[in-house]
Amino acid sequence: MLRNILKFNIGLGNALLHSKRFPCKQPQAWVKYSTAPERKRIYQNVSISQSDNGLYEINLDKRKLKTPGGKLFTAPNEALAIAVATEWDSQQDTLKFYTMHLTTLCNTALDNPTQRDEDQMINAALKYLETDTVCYRVEEPYDLVDLQINEWDPVLHWTEDRYNVKIGSSTSILGPEIPEATKETFRQHLKSYNFWSLTGLEYVITQLKSVVLALAMIDRHLSVEKAVLLSRLEEEYQIRQWGNVEWAHDYDMYELRARTAAGALFVQLSSETSSVKRKLLQD
Question: Where are the transmembrane segments (predicted)?
């Protein structure tokens, strides 16, 4: 049995398992690939193999895994291949595709159904700066104002210092006016990511509705749990005030953590260039 690759990425693995004022529609591929109907598991063994072109393939018994678009499923490195293989190996009698976030992200990168290039992905990600979760502030109630200042300001200031930019916050429904210099700095930073890593980063930004929180987490300034909690700050405040349906709240929280952690792990593994040591596959 393949062992959980999440041990390979310290700090993200333990977390794996929000409405917005200006919701941005997720690329249809993420929705399509993660909501595929459940199917019965008909394979016994999962393995990986390296092809002549250096890419890694996933084998379900003797069959090669393919994408929903019909392409041969290939991962750019061994680390990501093992992570995907682990998802397939951990499925029980029924394949639950909505739990296979890394597979979904790989399928999105491989099929690229919307045919976007890296510049288009960067533009889509940067749009979240204009309505970033941590940039919009309320004027009342005052205890929520204080909560936003105490919880959001530190990460906002850290990001501004880290990237030497000005972002700011606003109580306007339109959010703060982001300087062009700030957008350009982030644009140049995002250009350092490859296509696969951008796929994961955009996914994380979409989950958190925040460029600030996503980059702070990818930089490991924030844990997955903290980033998710900050993205849900207003919701958590309202829940404390008015109560909630406990099971629904817990389910939403764990699902958001799972998607966010998977996206962050995908970014890290997509940037991995060295081979995973064989001992990671051992007990």
Answer: none
